Amino acid sequence: MGQTVLATIDLTKKYKEQTALEHVNLVVEKGDIYGFIGQNGAGKSTLLRIVTAMARPTSGSVRLFGESSEAGLIEARKRVGAIIESPALYPDMTARDNLEVHRLLRGIPGKACISKALALVGLQDTGKKKAKNFSLGMKQRLGLAIALLGDPELLILDEPTNGLDPGGIVELRELVKELNRELELTILISSHILSELHQMATKYGIIHEGRLLEQMTHEQLNEKCKQHLRIRVDDPSKAATVLEMELGTQDYEVLQDGTIKLYSLYHDVRRVSMALTSSGLVIEYFAPDGDDLESYFTKRVGGGFHD
Ligand SMILES: Nc1ncnc2c1ncn2[C@@H]1O[C@H](COP(=O)(O)OP(=O)(O)OP(=O)(O)O)[C@@H](O)[C@H]1O
């Protein structure tokens, strides 16, 4: 386990009629690009707003950089940069002047951080151009520059690709990966589109109706979404021998309950079933399995709360 940057402990938020978060235990570790995925209204913004002190929990707590007391959290939040909702931009000002205002508001000493932040997001050459004349992608990058001003160690981005065109989405994704790599920034990024997060996230949390259904690594998600033939026979170890000796594959695994997941020969269903039956095995179950990302997500949230 890496070093925990952010943990929520049984975090619960209730509005009058509505429970927005219910006992959420989310863990973000140093160096993660944590993809926080959930449909609209699932509770993503509510959690991010509580972490950044824009809202208070009904019960439960937040631990940030090891701090969970009121005073400790005030200090810890200085190490966090965030864009939640639209970034506060001054439309009639240049990128540099926008950053200068935010620098003064936040009491960050020295102007050097401004050039640095502009260079990080690729806005160093926008000169006299006013923010109101920026493309949406540029505005988003200016928002990022503002969030990066205080050299944060954790960056929180709430649905940053909303409204961006495909080119803007690619740009943002590359930027997020670069910030993570070059500055060793830990990044918590929310979205309602799993495939959008998939090309950058190292870890995922799926939230649905205020409950965190699942947390997993990128590798675990890929494993779940890998296409395979799911096979159950009366004698799994004999079947394994058939796969290896007759079909020449070792690309399979035998689960604890004896189910075989065969990752190769996915399109050669007939050959596999013939080899098994002609060896005298009784096939109890035999079907292709594995989802693409969006159908995995839909299935997971459609099925409600299982764990
Ligand atoms: N201030 C509020 N008062 C009452 N209900 C609220 C308030 N803020 C959020 N909610 C409700 O809490 C639930 C979670 O909302 P939240 O904004 O956190 O979801 P989300 O996952 O961020 O979705 P979206 O992407 O649509 O913002 C929703 O049902 C929402 O209507």
TrEMBL record:
SMART domains: AAA. It comes from the Bacteria. This is ABC-2 type transport system ATP-binding protein. InterPro entries: AAA+_ATPase (IPR003593), ABC_transporter-like_ATP-bd (IPR003439), ABC_transporter-like_CS (IPR017871), P-loop_NTPase (IPR027417). Residues 6-234 form the ABC transporter domain. It comes from Paenibacillus lactis. SUPFAM superfamilies: P-loop containing nucleoside triphosphate hydrolases. Keywords: ATP-binding, Nucleotide-binding, Transport. Belongs to the ABC transporter superfamily. It holds the Pfam family ABC_tran. One of its GO terms (molecular function) is ATP binding.
